[in-house]
TrEMBL record:
Protein name: PCI domain-containing protein 2 homolog
Coiled-coil stretches noted in the UniProt entry, renumbered to this chain: none
A GO cellular component annotation in the UniProt record: transcription export complex 2
Start and end residues of each PCI domain: 208-389
Entry's Gene Ontology BP terms: poly(A)+ mRNA export from nucleus; post-transcriptional tethering of RNA polymerase II gene DNA at nuclear periphery; transcription elongation by RNA polymerase II
Domain of life: Eukaryota
GO molecular function: double-stranded DNA binding; RNA binding
SMART domains, alphabetized: PAM
Organism, as annotated: Ceratitis capitata (Mediterranean fruit fly)
Name of one Pfam family that matches: PCI
Gene3D superfamilies documented for this protein: Winged helix-like DNA-binding domain superfamily/Winged helix DNA-binding domain
Family: Belongs to the CSN12 family.
Amino acid sequence: MFGTLQNYLSGIQRSWSAADGDSLASFISLKDKHIMNRNLYVESPENIVERILDPPIDEIVSAHLKVLYYLGMEKRDFMQAYRQQSQCIQSVVKMLQQLKDENWCLPIMYTTCLDLRILAQKCEELGSSSKPGEILEKAADCLMSCFRVCAADNRSSDDDTKRLGMLNLVNQLFKVYFRINKLHLCKPLIRAIDSSTFKDSFPLPEQITYKYFVGRKAMFDSDYKSADEFLSFALRNCPRNFPRNKRLILIYLVPVKMLLGYLPKKQNLERFDLLQFHELAVALKEGNVRKFDEVIQRHEIFFIKCGIYLLVEKLKFIVYRNLFKRVYNIKQTHQLDLSAFQAALQFVGETDMSIDETHCIVANLIFEGKIKGYISYSHNKLVVSKQNPFPPLNTVS
């Protein structure tokens, strides 16, 4: 740890002269051990910093030292720290613009942007703004200023281009937009990455994070096949020594898979403490509406907290589909009286189900392609196809 401010600044100048981006990033990271050194808590460090450091790194370091000052106060001032970190990002943008045809400085951008997002989140948690999400939204504007510089760097060679930093920033922006529930702002970022020549050569950890968020967005857009593809990529490539991350991916992948007709194995769910989905799968397979409702009610808080309650509710139509398939297998006829479906629904817990509501459920299942057939209203019957009247869910478009 640096004993004095001068030693700390001298170390930064050496790293700057050597164009050592990783070393410089640690010097200005709020996760590095130097933040515990009270000698660095300086309210107005500009004079000494400018004497030792070259521009543009001097402005970045001055802002960082002010952040340390506000975080090191007896009563920490997170809002002032956030403001200084925002100033730090503005100086990083200047640095990116000045260092043309060079990208060794990208780690500095990654670190300062991460710290800005974390500080913004802390301010939101403390209620530092009267309007929820306002601070994070302003933080996203700062991150976008870095993104624009990176995305516009078309003249540099592939090895030196700042476009290699785009995905890291996109992932930071995704985390903000998902937190403030502004998913529509993800669309232009997704287009930028999908059209990038580097989309398959970004670091694998960044690709995993990207696919996780894009998969979640596809899920909310009801594009379940794309959600399955993206989330499966994230799960497949997530290292084994990150079980918490694997669990996060599975929380969204499992219900998506279930909507596509794939039921999870109990041992896999047990391994990641997600047996809530096993109970759902059992009810789904049996076509047991009562059991399905009981599972949802029992684990309601979990589903709401994870943001998948409405998604899980959509599984109810698969429960209906499986129940009606059982009725079809018992009756062994292609002309099924709708009152038989009504009786089945009442038997499994929908005690006040009317014939009109039964019609509505069957019509929706036909519309979604889960049943092949049509309703004969004059005869109050469901006439199903003689070939594959209940197609496998994974073939339903």
